[in-house]
Amino acid sequence: MVVENDIEVQKSLEVVYNSTPINRFQAKIPGVIPITDEIIADYHNFQSIINHCNNNAEVLNNRLRDFLLTIKERKQTKEELMAMDFMGLRGIFSNFLNSYTAITKEENFNTKDKRKAITQTFFNYISDRNIYTHGALKLRRPDETFVIQFIANKKIKLYAELRADILKSNLAVSIWLMKILAEINTFYHNIKPLNVTPPELGNHSLQ
Question: Per residue in 20-49, pLDDT tens?
Fold first, then answer.
């Protein structure tokens, strides 16, 4: 139990073990040493950063929906857009970006590959966001590795290893996508455009 902002919070640590199969029904779990205070602190720090990733994703989700609601050429009603999830909104955005020929004169959107990189990054980002949002952070023992347990395709339990650089990349990508969306918004509404510098995306997706 800890106290944060005068509120008592019960913090827990979930553990999963790497085991060696003995037969169809049994597995051998290796002996492990007690969990150190440092590992516990790292675990809760990872939880905190995941929360920041999820918060950024919700901000981006809302900004994307708000922008799509302003598009005159859209075929969807306001009610339909309000009911869509993040990935559905991304699909509408991708169709818009690929059909909005006026923006193809702008530096960040003047080739098909650049536009595809944006929509693909959006897809990968939302896929990872779904894992962060619905998955469970666990400590894998005995190698003391942080993993997220999640359900893939609504039927398969999987684990994705998690590192600080992956979380850092996720935060950087969310900021980059917000800037890209802001640039499109300012161009579409004839506002002074912004300068957008892509982050070092790297190969840090959970997929």
Answer: 555 655 555 666 678 899 999 999 999 999
Q: Enter the tokens of residue 148.
A: 């997220």
Residue 4 lies in a domain: no
- Asked whether residue 128 is assigned to any structural domain, the reply reads yes
d(CA 56, CA 78): 23
Question: The dihedral of CA 129, 130, 135, 139: what is its sign?
Answer: negative
d(C-alpha 181, C-alpha 166), whole Å: 22
Rounded to an integer, what distance in angstroms lies between the CA atom of residue 161 and that of residue 3?
Answer: 29
Find all residues with CB under 8 Å of 201, minimum gap 6, and list them.
121, 169, 172, 173, 176
- Residue 195: DSSP 8-state: P
Q: Are 27 and 148 in contact (CB under 8 A)?
A: no
Question: The domain containing residue 97 runs over which residues?
Answer: 9-188
Q: What percent of the chain has pLDDT over 90?
A: 69
Residue 1, Cβ neighbours under 10 Å: how many? 6
Structure confidence at residue 200 as a pLDDT band (50, 70, 90):
low
d(CA 13, CA 129): 21
